[in-house]
């Protein structure tokens, strides 16, 4: 069976030449990252980097390596006006006439690195509409504006999952030729859920609405939902959302009373928006308890947001518990 390669798919789907270079640049650098991950301890690249990022999180060596690789790869592309990364305090200017801005989480779920579990790279491509030189304000566009969004999941196989606004397509890396080949063109999230994904250890810190929603899921057939639900938590958003794109369900990372001033844990511009774009493109819903995430006007590149996403009916039910 002959499968489309990623470049063939982009050309067939009339993605602009500039946007193609951005997506192909990200795909190429992800192969290098996947090779570094595969070497693991043999390359001496596991463990802490000994520094904190702007979010106050301890950086892993591979967070820094992946960040540098992606930043350098994007900076070479004339189509890229500027980039913003989870691991960089400020936005970084690139080419003065580039048409696109790229935000990224170089290695999502990086606490999984040292246990040889799944991690991923998340990216969001926005049009550049401001004037030179690029500044943070240019990036502060609602997720709805994304020209493309996607992620690379470094798992038993390496997969690139992409949307340019026309559905969601999954590609798998052929490790013999180092090319991404199309493996699923019909990604769709069923409206009803049988599975949910949340870090249950935080239960006592959630809002009353979230506590009673999750209690009712756990009560299963014996509770008000009259239905059993299964639970899964990989602790890497990229892997938990990948499962939802593959077989449905609801994912949430809610607000937490331990840091009441913090909206949530996940970051709007390089986690919730790109993953949310994919989920909406696959027919799912993406909300905070107040409204749709892709409509939020960002105020800061590192802003956080509570996230409820996945199966359309289940997300609505969860939001209703907050009213
Ligand atoms: O990037 C933040 C992140 O690692 C997500 O990928 C993941 O969903 C979440 O944090 C895991 O949080 P916790 O440590 O509470 O399980
Ligand atoms: Mn992350």
Spans of at least 5 consecutive residues whose pLDDT stays below 50 are none
The portion of residues forming beta strands comes to: 15-25%
In which order are the strands of the major sheet placed? 4-3-5-6-7-8-9-10
Number of helices: 8
Give the CATH superfamily of the largest domain. Answer: Fructose-1,6-Bisphosphatase, subunit A, domain 1
Distance between the termini: 51 Å
Number of domains: 2
Oligomer class: single chain
Class based on secondary structure composition and strand pairing: alpha+beta
| Overall radius of gyration | 19 Å
**What ligands can be seen in this structure?**
6-O-phosphono-beta-D-fructofuranose, manganese (II) ion
Binding site for Mg(2+) 1: 86, 105, 107
Enzyme class: hydrolase
Subunit structure: Homotetramer.
Cofactor: Mg(2+)
């Amino acid at each position: 069976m002959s499968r489309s390669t990623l470049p063939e798919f982009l050309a067939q789907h009339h993605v602009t030449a500039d946007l193609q270079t951005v997506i192909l640049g990200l795909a190429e650098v992800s192969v290098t990252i996947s090779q570094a991950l595969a070497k693991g301890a043999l390359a001496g690249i596991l463990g802490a980097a000994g520094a904190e990022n702007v979010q106050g999180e301890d950086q892993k060596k591979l967070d820094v390596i992946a960040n540098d690789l992606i930043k350098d790869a994007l900076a070479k592309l004339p189509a890229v006006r500027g980039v913003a990364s989870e691991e960089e305090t400020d936005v970084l200017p690139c080419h003065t006439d580039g048409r696109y801005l790229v935000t990224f989480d170089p290695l999502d779920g990086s606490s999984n690195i040292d246990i040889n579990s799944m991690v991923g790279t998340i990216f969001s491509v926005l049009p550049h509409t401001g004037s030179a030189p690029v500044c943070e304000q240019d990036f502060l566009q609602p997720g709805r504006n994304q020209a493309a969004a996607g992620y690379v999941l470094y798992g038993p196989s390496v997969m690139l999952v992409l949307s340019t606004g026309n559905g969601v397509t999954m590609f798998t890396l052929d490790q013999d030729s180092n090319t991404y080949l199309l493996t699923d063109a019909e990604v769709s999230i069923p409206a009803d859920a049988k599975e949910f994904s949340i870090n249950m250890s935080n239960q006592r810190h959630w809002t009353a609405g979230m506590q009673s929603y999750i209690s009712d899921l756990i009560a299963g057939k014996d509770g008000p939902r009259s239905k059993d639900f299964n639970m899964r938590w990989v602790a890497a958003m990229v892997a938990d959302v990948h499962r939802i794109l593959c077989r449905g369900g609801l994912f949430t990372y809610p607000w937490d009373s331990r840091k009441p001033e913090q909206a949530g844990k996940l970051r709007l511009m390089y986690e919730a928006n790109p993953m949310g774009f994919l989920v909406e493109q696959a027919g799912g819903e993406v909300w905070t308890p107040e409204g749709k995430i892709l409509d939020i006007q960002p105020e800061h590149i590192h802003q956080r947001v509570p996230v409820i996403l996945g199966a359309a009916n289940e997300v609505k039910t969860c939001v209703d518990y907050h009213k």
